């Protein structure tokens, strides 16, 4: 698994959750459903290893699909104008966070579970 795979995983989180709910509604609790639940659980819990700011950036930019400008505006609104960072700084924070998550995934051999649901 690569950093881009982790990025793609978070970008597809809304689709993964929607698919999980559809499968749950039609009571199709098969291997695919179980794998989907594990993937979502791993992705959500990997965010717990990040700082609050890193989680917010991943959530806004990758999961919610905000542009970098929208991320900057939201961050300014939450943190105040004195804590405004440059776009490049936000990009570096996200990159560092993705590397950290990738390290967790690689060290725990979770990539076999996650690979099936990247770019769903």
- Count the helices. How many? 7
On the 0-100 scale, what is the average pLDDT? 84
The rough form would be described as globular
Total beta strands: 0
Outline the structure in words.
- With 120 residues, this protein is mostly helical.
- It has one domain (3-117).
- The protein is 72% helix and 0% strand.
- It has seven helices and no strands.
- α1 crosses α4, α2 packs antiparallel against α3 and α4 packs across α6 (87-107).
- The two termini are 15 Å apart.
Question: How are the SSEs ordered, and which strands pair?
Answer:
Elements: H1 3-11, H2 13-25, H3 31-46, H4 52-63, H5 68-79, H6 87-107, H7 111-114
Helix pairs in contact: 1-4, 2-3, 4-5, 4-6
Give a quick summary of the entry:
The chain is mostly helical and 120 residues long. It contains seven helices and no strands. The chain has one domain (3-117).
Give structural attributes:
about 120 residues, mainly alpha, 7 helices
């Amino acid at each position: 698994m690569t950093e881009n795979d982790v990025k793609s995983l978070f970008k597809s989180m809304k689709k993964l959750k929607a698919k999980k709910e559809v499968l749950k509604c039609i009571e199709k609790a098969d291997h695919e459903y179980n794998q989907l639940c594990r993937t979502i659980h791993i992705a959500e819990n990997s965010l717990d290893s990040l700082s609050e700011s890193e989680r917010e950036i991943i959530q806004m930019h990758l999961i919610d699909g905000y542009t970098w400008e929208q991320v900057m505006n939201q961050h300014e609104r939450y943190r105040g104008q004195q804590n405004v960072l440059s776009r490049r700084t936000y990009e570096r924070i996200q990159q560092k966070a993705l590397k950290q998550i990738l390290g967790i995934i690689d060290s725990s051999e979770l990539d076999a579970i996650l690979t099936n649901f990247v770019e769903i």
